[in-house]
Design a protein that fits this description.
Blueprint: H1 6-24, E1 32-33, E2 36-40, H2 41-60, H3 83-104, H4 119-141, H5 149-169, H6 173-176, E3 183-189, E4 196-201, E5 206-209, E6 217-221, H7 223-230, E7 241-245, H8 247-256
Parallel strand pairs: 3-6
Antiparallel strand pairs: 1-2, 3-4, 4-5, 6-7
Helix pairs in contact: 1-3, 1-4, 2-3, 2-4, 4-5, 5-7
Length: 260
């Protein structure tokens, strides 16, 4: 698996936002989001749209440090409460952020909280922020959820990189536990050839690679469902996936890679 192109990430921010908007259409915006129980469906949508606007502000201003939320125009959501206003606000925010990303190109240096301070980082991050929260919205609205295989695979890989980065920083006690014991996890997509990951918990840190190998625990299912389990949007006990071996190790990983 390889990174998607910068243009593809920009396209996907719009594609995923449009799919989120379609999920929200006609849904009960006051419904609780099962996978984010502190939020209603409307609050989830505002979180996504606010994140888009925040990144747009970082990119447009070529920010060299974090931009406070209160400095981001429209961050708190649309002025009106109705679903039409929310829909327009989501569309406008995503379009403006993508326009800023396209104008800047992939190599512009901007602030980020992570390992890479570039517009390329933010294009990828906003793609998967929207992919995963669209899954949250689908759960709340009780509608089907699908995502392109290349995007689903990259969502898994980006999350592995984020968990790895958090572990490297050494500040998160749960991420620090993802090591040792000569243990491993194997993710195996049953519908996409080559979509497999072997995660090995080494003494100093965990590592991963694409490999078909025996592991302490294996998770098998469609690529989309693997991504959903890995992001804690689908329970590993679901009949849509199969867990072989030490299920407690999979639970251990999921619990310690949640970051709250």
């Amino acid at each position: 698996m390889t990174l998607l192109s910068y243009d593809r990430y920009c396209d996907e921010i719009l594609v995923q936002t449009d799919a989120l908007r379609a999920t929200l259409k006609g849904a009960d915006l006051a419904a609780t989001v099962p996978s984010c129980p502190d939020w209603t469906l409307r609050q989830l949508a505002v979180h996504v749209g606010g994140a888009h606007r925040w990144v747009g502000e970082i990119v447009r201003g070529r920010a060299t440090e974090d931009v406070p939320e209160e400095k981001v125009p429209g961050f708190e959501g649309p002025a009106a409460d109705g679903p039409e206003a929310l829909d327009a606000w989501l569309a406008e925010g995503a379009a403006a952020t993508v326009a800023a990303l396209r104008e800047a190109g992939p190599d512009a240096e901007v602030w980020s909280w992570a390992w890479e301070r570039s517009t390329a980082f933010w294009a990828r991050r906003m793609t998967h922020e929207t992919v995963v929260h669209r899954a949250d919205a689908a759960l709340a609205a009780r509608v089907p959820y699908t995502v392109d295989a290349e995007v689903a695979a990259d969502t898994i890989e980006e999350w592995l990189r984020i968990v790895s980065y958090v572990q490297e920083q050494g500040d998160d006690p749960e991420a620090n536990e993802l090591r040792g014991g000569d243990r491993s996890l194997h993710l195996h997509a049953t519908d996409v050839p080559g979509a497999e990951w072997l995660i090995e918990l080494g003494e100093e840190r965990f590592t991963w690679r694409h490999d078909h190998a025996k592991a302490t625990v294996a998770l098998r299912g469609s690529l989309t469902d693997l991504m959903l389990v890995f992001n804690r949007r689908l329970a590993p006990t679901s009949d849509r996936v199969e867990v072989l071996g030490d299920a407690e190790l999979l639970d251990f990983w999921l619990e310690r890679s949640s970051f709250g």
